[in-house]
Amino acid sequence: MRLLFSGDVAWSTGRKALAEALPVIRRERGPFDFVIINCENAAHGKGMTDKIFGEFLALGVDAMTSGNHIWDKPAFFTVLDAETRIFRPANYPPSCPGRGHGIIERKGKRLGILNLEGQAFMPPIDSPFLCADRLIDELRRGGGEKLPIFVDFHAEATSEKQAMGYYLDGRVCAVVGTHTHVQTADERIMPHGTAYISDVGMTGGHDGILGVSYASVMPKFLDGLPTRFEASESGAAFNGVIVDVDDDTGLAVGIERVKAETGKMT
């Protein structure tokens, strides 16, 4: 099984970069059994909309994960409740809209998805580690002992992400970090067969600050006053990872970073 995952698709620049990059990456690096993206920043940097959700499906995205910003547009809650192809962090209270885990299927193959959010430097939330224990068991009951399970760990602290990688090593096919928007160079296969990277990076405008234009961010640093963030519209690039999974074990045999400047793609 071959998986393609894109880090946080940020703003309209990220949506355009994704639309441009996906066909090229599919042609040059595919075929992929599943394409997954983190979509929490897709609608003007915060949250999602029904329209954007449909656009991503039309691009051939099979599943979408998210994070703390998925709650920023309450009108999208009905989609979170109705759709099985989009996930919010599972360690929010069960009363929150949507679901944090599930099994997706395509062309006879099945993949478990688990979306978790960290606790360090993040809003108060239940333990992602204990939540993972419970939901991995639930996914196994529904999909079998060899079901590959892909984990998007949306967290701030690298230490917490590494801890999750070791904690789930051998139990899931991949633990990939999102949220910080900067692609790290620590991709590897953990000792017991789990693919890991601290952060897959961001699909969006990289000639700015985390996808936001330099000019709109600097007043906050210089004056400490509220400022309206605007998208960085230049330096558009796709950041993600390709994960190869052994069908017999459900564990990873390879992970590779992808960083493609979309303006230079042919």
Can you put this structure into words, describing what you see?
With about 270 residues, the chain is of the alpha/beta class. It has one domain: Metallo-dependent phosphatases (Purple Acid Phosphatase, chain A, domain 2), CATH 3.60.21.10. About 25% of the residues lie in helices and about 25% in strands. It has six helices and 13 strands. It has helices at about 10-30, 50-60, 75-80, 130-145, 160-170, 215-225, and strands spanning about 1-5, 10, 35-40, 65, 100-105, 110-115, 150-155, 175-180, 190, 195, 200-205, 235-245, 250-260. The strands form two sheets. Strands 1, 2, 3, 4, 11, 12 and 13 form a seven-stranded mixed β-sheet that branches. The protein has a six-stranded mixed β-sheet with strand order 5-6-7-8-10-9, with helices on one face. Strand 5 and strand 6 (about 110-115) form a beta hairpin. The radius of gyration is 17 Å and the shape is globular. It starts with a strand and ends in a 5-residue tail after the last strand. About 50% of the residues are buried. The mean pLDDT is about 95.
Pick out its properties.
26% strand; 6-stranded mixed β-sheet; 6 helices; alpha/beta; 27% helix; Purple Acid Phosphatase, chain A, domain 2; 13 strands; 266 residues; globular
